[in-house]
Protein backbone atom coordinates (compact mmCIF):
# COMPACT_ATOMS: atom_id res chain seq x y z
CA UNK A 1 0.00 0.00 0.00
CA UNK A 2 1.26 3.45 -0.86
CA UNK A 3 1.29 5.78 2.15
CA UNK A 4 1.81 9.45 2.78
CA UNK A 5 3.39 11.05 5.82
CA UNK A 6 2.66 14.56 7.08
CA UNK A 7 5.13 16.21 9.52
CA UNK A 8 3.92 18.85 11.95
CA UNK A 9 4.63 20.19 15.42
CA UNK A 10 2.41 19.71 18.42
CA UNK A 11 0.85 22.72 20.11
CA UNK A 12 -0.83 25.47 18.12
CA UNK A 13 0.00 24.08 14.68
CA UNK A 14 -1.38 20.61 15.46
CA UNK A 15 -4.51 22.07 17.07
CA UNK A 16 -5.19 24.46 14.21
CA UNK A 17 -4.52 21.77 11.59
CA UNK A 18 -7.09 19.33 13.04
CA UNK A 19 -10.09 21.02 11.32
CA UNK A 20 -8.28 20.97 7.96
CA UNK A 21 -7.47 17.28 8.38
CA UNK A 22 -11.07 16.59 9.41
CA UNK A 23 -12.28 18.28 6.22
CA UNK A 24 -10.12 15.79 4.32
CA UNK A 25 -11.62 12.93 6.35
CA UNK A 26 -8.43 12.41 8.38
CA UNK A 27 -8.62 11.91 12.14
CA UNK A 28 -5.45 11.22 14.18
CA UNK A 29 -5.69 8.15 16.42
CA UNK A 30 -3.67 9.77 19.24
CA UNK A 31 -3.38 13.16 20.89
CA UNK A 32 0.27 14.31 20.81
CA UNK A 33 -0.27 16.39 23.98
CA UNK A 34 -0.90 13.23 26.01
CA UNK A 35 0.68 10.47 23.96
CA UNK A 36 4.44 9.99 23.79
CA UNK A 37 4.21 8.57 20.30
CA UNK A 38 6.00 10.51 17.57
CA UNK A 39 4.33 8.62 14.73
CA UNK A 40 0.56 8.93 14.81
CA UNK A 41 -1.66 6.66 12.78
CA UNK A 42 -4.91 8.12 11.49
CA UNK A 43 -8.32 6.62 10.68
CA UNK A 44 -7.03 6.38 7.12
CA UNK A 45 -4.44 3.60 6.89
CA UNK A 46 -2.59 5.36 4.05
CA UNK A 47 -2.03 8.57 6.06
CA UNK A 48 0.23 9.01 9.08
CA UNK A 49 1.55 11.99 11.00
CA UNK A 50 5.03 12.68 12.37
CA UNK A 51 5.30 14.90 15.44
CA UNK A 52 8.56 16.88 15.25
CA UNK A 53 9.93 20.20 16.51
CA UNK A 54 8.54 23.15 14.52
CA UNK A 55 12.01 24.08 13.22
CA UNK A 56 12.66 20.49 12.07
CA UNK A 57 9.53 20.16 9.89
CA UNK A 58 11.14 21.56 6.68
CA UNK A 59 14.14 19.23 7.11
CA UNK A 60 11.97 16.09 7.31
CA UNK A 61 10.12 17.15 4.17
CA UNK A 62 13.24 18.29 2.28
CA UNK A 63 14.83 14.84 2.67
CA UNK A 64 11.60 12.97 1.98
CA UNK A 65 11.28 11.43 5.46
CA UNK A 66 7.87 13.12 5.32
CA UNK A 67 6.01 13.78 2.08
CA UNK A 68 4.25 16.86 3.38
CA UNK A 69 4.56 19.20 6.33
CA UNK A 70 3.11 22.25 7.99
CA UNK A 71 5.52 25.00 9.02
CA UNK A 72 5.50 28.69 9.87
CA UNK A 73 6.76 31.27 7.39
CA UNK A 74 9.35 32.21 10.06
CA UNK A 75 10.70 28.66 10.11
CA UNK A 76 10.64 28.32 6.31
CA UNK A 77 12.62 31.53 5.80
CA UNK A 78 15.32 30.40 8.22
CA UNK A 79 15.44 26.94 6.61
CA UNK A 80 15.67 28.39 3.10
CA UNK A 81 13.00 26.21 1.47
CA UNK A 82 15.36 24.03 -0.61
CA UNK A 83 13.56 21.05 -2.15
CA UNK A 84 10.19 22.24 -0.92
CA UNK A 85 7.08 23.05 -2.88
CA UNK A 86 4.87 25.51 -0.96
CA UNK A 87 1.42 25.29 -2.53
CA UNK A 88 -0.75 26.82 0.21
CA UNK A 89 -0.81 29.42 2.92
CA UNK A 90 -3.02 27.68 5.51
CA UNK A 91 -3.59 30.97 7.40
CA UNK A 92 -3.14 29.22 10.76
CA UNK A 93 -0.79 30.05 13.68
CA UNK A 94 -0.87 33.69 12.68
CA UNK A 95 1.35 36.27 14.29
CA UNK A 96 3.95 38.84 13.25
CA UNK A 97 7.72 39.07 13.36
CA UNK A 98 8.75 42.29 15.11
CA UNK A 99 11.58 44.35 16.48
CA UNK A 100 11.00 45.14 20.16
CA UNK A 101 13.02 47.22 22.62
CA UNK A 102 12.81 48.05 26.33
CA UNK A 103 10.40 50.89 27.22
CA UNK A 104 12.58 53.99 27.18
CA UNK A 105 15.11 52.81 24.56
CA UNK A 106 14.94 55.29 21.66
CA UNK A 107 15.19 52.91 18.71
CA UNK A 108 14.49 55.64 16.15
CA UNK A 109 17.32 57.79 17.49
CA UNK A 110 19.76 54.88 17.58
CA UNK A 111 18.95 54.11 13.93
CA UNK A 112 19.24 57.79 12.93
CA UNK A 113 22.61 58.13 14.63
CA UNK A 114 23.86 55.03 12.85
CA UNK A 115 24.75 53.37 16.18
CA UNK A 116 25.42 49.65 16.24
CA UNK A 117 22.47 47.95 17.86
CA UNK A 118 22.77 44.57 19.57
CA UNK A 119 19.84 42.37 18.60
CA UNK A 120 19.04 38.99 20.14
CA UNK A 121 16.97 36.59 18.04
CA UNK A 122 16.26 33.05 16.97
CA UNK A 123 15.72 34.38 13.42
CA UNK A 124 19.26 35.26 12.29
CA UNK A 125 18.74 35.09 8.52
CA UNK A 126 15.50 37.04 8.46
CA UNK A 127 16.77 39.64 10.93
CA UNK A 128 20.02 40.06 9.00
CA UNK A 129 18.13 40.62 5.73
CA UNK A 130 15.72 43.07 7.38
CA UNK A 131 18.38 45.30 8.94
CA UNK A 132 20.62 45.14 5.87
CA UNK A 133 17.73 46.32 3.67
CA UNK A 134 17.17 49.28 6.02
CA UNK A 135 20.88 50.05 6.33
CA UNK A 136 20.78 49.60 10.11
CA UNK A 137 24.01 48.42 11.73
CA UNK A 138 23.40 45.45 14.00
CA UNK A 139 25.30 42.82 15.89
CA UNK A 140 23.09 39.75 15.98
CA UNK A 141 23.13 37.35 18.91
CA UNK A 142 21.62 33.92 18.33
CA UNK A 143 19.26 32.64 21.03
CA UNK A 144 16.99 29.59 21.03
CA UNK A 145 14.13 30.95 23.16
CA UNK A 146 12.94 33.46 25.78
CA UNK A 147 14.32 36.34 23.71
CA UNK A 148 12.41 38.81 25.93
CA UNK A 149 14.94 38.25 28.68
CA UNK A 150 17.95 39.46 26.68
CA UNK A 151 17.33 43.26 26.87
CA UNK A 152 16.34 43.03 30.54
CA UNK A 153 19.76 41.73 31.57
CA UNK A 154 21.92 43.72 29.15
CA UNK A 155 22.58 40.95 26.63
CA UNK A 156 21.00 43.00 23.82
CA UNK A 157 19.43 46.39 23.04
CA UNK A 158 16.60 44.88 21.03
CA UNK A 159 15.03 41.58 20.03
CA UNK A 160 13.47 40.20 16.88
CA UNK A 161 10.68 37.85 17.87
CA UNK A 162 7.16 36.66 17.08
CA UNK A 163 4.33 38.61 18.63
CA UNK A 164 0.63 37.84 18.66
CA UNK A 165 -1.22 39.51 21.55
CA UNK A 166 1.77 41.50 22.81
CA UNK A 167 1.16 40.26 26.37
CA UNK A 168 4.62 38.71 26.73
CA UNK A 169 6.28 41.93 25.55
CA UNK A 170 4.20 44.03 27.97
CA UNK A 171 4.91 41.70 30.87
CA UNK A 172 8.63 42.25 30.25
CA UNK A 173 8.39 46.05 29.69
CA UNK A 174 9.21 45.79 26.01
CA UNK A 175 7.56 47.69 23.16
CA UNK A 176 7.18 46.78 19.54
CA UNK A 177 8.93 49.36 17.33
CA UNK A 178 8.85 47.72 13.90
CA UNK A 179 6.88 44.98 12.18
CA UNK A 180 9.14 42.95 9.90
CA UNK A 181 6.47 40.69 8.38
CA UNK A 182 3.22 38.89 9.04
CA UNK A 183 3.52 35.17 9.74
CA UNK A 184 1.26 32.20 9.14
CA UNK A 185 1.83 28.51 8.50
CA UNK A 186 2.09 26.90 5.09
CA UNK A 187 1.64 23.48 3.63
CA UNK A 188 4.96 22.24 2.26
CA UNK A 189 5.47 19.26 -0.03
CA UNK A 190 8.56 17.27 -0.97
CA UNK A 191 9.08 17.91 -4.69
CA UNK A 192 9.73 14.25 -5.54
CA UNK A 193 6.69 13.08 -3.52
CA UNK A 194 4.52 15.54 -5.42
CA UNK A 195 5.40 13.70 -8.63
CA UNK A 196 5.70 10.11 -7.40
CA UNK A 197 2.75 10.11 -4.98
CA UNK A 198 0.57 12.54 -6.84
CA UNK A 199 -2.58 10.38 -6.54
CA UNK A 200 -2.42 10.69 -2.73
CA UNK A 201 -0.80 14.12 -2.37
CA UNK A 202 -2.77 16.19 -4.87
CA UNK A 203 -6.28 15.42 -3.49
CA UNK A 204 -5.06 16.45 -0.03
CA UNK A 205 -3.73 19.77 -1.37
CA UNK A 206 -7.01 20.30 -3.25
CA UNK A 207 -9.18 19.59 -0.20
CA UNK A 208 -7.13 21.94 1.98
CA UNK A 209 -7.40 24.63 -0.71
CA UNK A 210 -11.18 24.21 -0.97
CA UNK A 211 -11.60 24.27 2.81
CA UNK A 212 -9.61 27.50 3.03
CA UNK A 213 -11.54 28.98 0.15
CA UNK A 214 -14.84 28.30 1.96
CA UNK A 215 -13.63 30.12 5.08
CA UNK A 216 -14.15 33.87 5.45
P1 LIG B 1 8.53 25.82 21.54
O1 LIG B 1 7.58 26.97 21.80
O2 LIG B 1 8.01 24.48 22.00
O3 LIG B 1 9.93 26.09 21.90
P2 LIG B 1 8.37 26.60 18.84
O4 LIG B 1 8.36 28.02 19.30
O5 LIG B 1 9.31 26.20 17.77
O6 LIG B 1 8.60 25.58 19.98
P3 LIG B 1 5.52 26.87 18.59
O7 LIG B 1 5.54 27.84 19.73
O8 LIG B 1 4.49 25.80 18.57
O9 LIG B 1 6.92 26.16 18.41
O10 LIG B 1 5.43 27.72 17.27
C1 LIG B 1 5.27 27.06 16.04
C2 LIG B 1 4.96 28.10 14.99
O11 LIG B 1 3.76 28.80 15.31
C3 LIG B 1 6.03 29.19 14.86
O12 LIG B 1 7.04 28.79 13.96
C4 LIG B 1 5.21 30.35 14.33
O13 LIG B 1 5.05 30.26 12.92
C5 LIG B 1 3.87 30.17 15.01
N1 LIG B 1 3.78 30.94 16.26
C6 LIG B 1 4.71 31.06 17.22
N2 LIG B 1 4.29 31.84 18.23
C7 LIG B 1 3.04 32.21 17.91
C8 LIG B 1 2.04 33.00 18.55
N3 LIG B 1 2.26 33.59 19.72
N4 LIG B 1 0.84 33.12 17.96
C9 LIG B 1 0.59 32.53 16.79
N5 LIG B 1 1.50 31.79 16.11
C10 LIG B 1 2.69 31.61 16.66
MG1 LIG C 1 7.08 28.91 20.85
Short recap of the structure:
This protein is an alpha/beta fold.
Write the layout of secondary structure elements.
Layout lengths: L3 E5 L3 H12 L15 E3 L5 E5 L5 H6 L5 E5 H7 L4 E19 L4 H7 L3 E5 L2 H11 L3 E5 L6 H4 L5 E6 L3 H5 L2 E17 H6 L1 H17 L2
Parallel strand pairs: 1-3, 1-4, 6-7, 6-8
Antiparallel strand pairs: 2-3, 4-9, 5-8, 5-9
This protein binds adenosine-5'-triphosphate and magnesium ion.
3D structure, described in words:
This protein is α/β, with parallel strands linked by helices and 216 residues long. The protein has 2 domains: 4-94 and 183-214, 3-Layer(aba) Sandwich (D-Maltodextrin-Binding Protein, domain 2), CATH 3.40.190.10; 95-182, D-Maltodextrin-Binding Protein, domain 2 (3-Layer(aba) Sandwich), CATH 3.40.190. Helices cover 35% and strands 32% of the residues. It contains 9 helices and 9 strands. The protein has helices at 12-23, 57-62, 73-79, 107-113, 124-134, 149-152, 167-171, 191-196, 198-214; strands at 4-8, 39-41, 47-51, 68-72, 84-102, 117-121, 138-142, 158-163, 174-190. Helix 5 links the parallel strand 6 (117-121) and strand 7 (138-142). The longest helix has 17 residues, at 198-214. It is elongated, with a radius of gyration of 19 Å. The relative contact order is 0.20. The structure holds adenosine-5'-triphosphate and magnesium ion (MG). Adenosine-5'-triphosphate (ATP) binds next to helix 1, helix 3, strand 5 and strand 9. Adenosine-5'-triphosphate binds at residues 9, 11-13, 54-55, 72, 74-75, 93-95, 145, 162, 164, 183, 185.
As for the CATH topology of the largest domain, it is D-Maltodextrin-Binding Protein, domain 2
- Portion of residues in helices? 25-40%
Q: Give the second-level CATH assignment, the architecture of the largest domain.
A: 3-Layer(aba) Sandwich
Number of domains: 2
Order of adjacent strands in the largest pleated sheet: 2-3-1-4-9-5-8-6-7
CATH superfamily caption of the largest domain: Periplasmic binding protein-like II
Largest sheet: 9 strands, mixed
Q: Which structural category fits the helices and strands?
A: alpha/beta
**Share of β-strand residues:** 25-35%
Count helical runs: 9
CATH class of the largest domain: Alpha Beta
User: What Rg is obtained from the alpha carbons, in whole angstroms?
Assistant: 19 Å
The residue ranges in which pLDDT falls below 50 over 5 or more consecutive positions are none
Net shape: elongated
- What's the number of extended β-strand segments? 9
Helix and strand element order: EHEEHEHEHEHEHEHEHH
**How far apart, in Å, are the first and last alpha carbons?**
37 Å
Overall mean confidence score, pLDDT: 97
